[in-house]
Fold this protein.
Amino acid sequence: MNILILRVSAIGDVVHTLPAIFLLKKLYPKAKISWVVQQKAASLLKNQPFLENVWVLPDKFLKPKNWSETFKIIKEIRKTKWDAILDFQGILKTSALLLLLKGEKYSFCTNHARSSHTTFATKHHITPTYTNIIEKNLSLAGNMTLKKHAQKKRIFNSKYQYCSPTLDNLKKDFFLDFQQKTKIFIDDWLKENNISKFIAITPNTTWESKQWPKENWTKLLKLLDKSKRSKHKIILFGKHFGEPGQSIAKFCQEHNIEVYPPPKIDLISTAYLISKSDLLIGPDTGLLHLADFLNIKTIAIFGPTTAQKHGPFLKEENIANAIQIPCLHRQEKIHGDGSKEQNCMYQLKPEKLLERILKIINP
């Protein structure tokens, strides 16, 4: 039995789809599950024992300059007539892939697809009931009925038909496999820097409006640096892959604030480093969701997106620790002129966040 997953981007969305893979493995223990993903998130999925194949597309695989490589990969995927192809993304680029692939095709219904017009590319449509995106993805996996099995017996509990299944049993099976060379490299770096207990700070995120302002981050880091109540060191992610992390790292260097930006590493190495942390703090970003999947404590900072729908869901403590800042807009760019009066993210004060951090690491 062969099942193909379409969730090509982004990192957070890929992480939100991982629980659905473990549900499929539970429902179909002998199934061979493969995944199509873009380069940016590929290292997280490659060499994982719960996946049969991982096909890696260029990050902009529909651009003419990438057509040759894209069609070469699609040609390999087309060698299999899939028992099920699950489109967890529902956007133009996954629909383009679906039209070229062979097998039974499943997606969310029109009202729940990211782009409603993309459902034309799939035959079977699932109507989920959910509050969090992870539940939505579980609903697609849990309600899929493979054609060859449908006539023999109904293999799903009826409660899965219109709502998402519980995570209680699934969470026990969640894991990421880290290769020995990854562990050695990260463990050696931590040892070289004399880091045993640390807090991870992840300021980068895709939308400008989801970012906590730089001056708030720098003030928080000043407060943490001076705090005598914490023996944790600070690892600052993002120096090598985003403006917020780069500018904050530069500020800390100029003002002698002790933070440790990790070396330039891939996503699976980043995941292993996060798995060693005692707490991760960040806005709505892939690394935040990765920490929640890895059962690491988090403080999530949400503004234009909602913590209930997009935030931590797998660790109860993380749900309670999430901070929802009231915002009147849901736009990728900051509303207005970006001033403290216009940018809702300024409402969360560094002093308030420090109180919550210290309460978690020093209960």
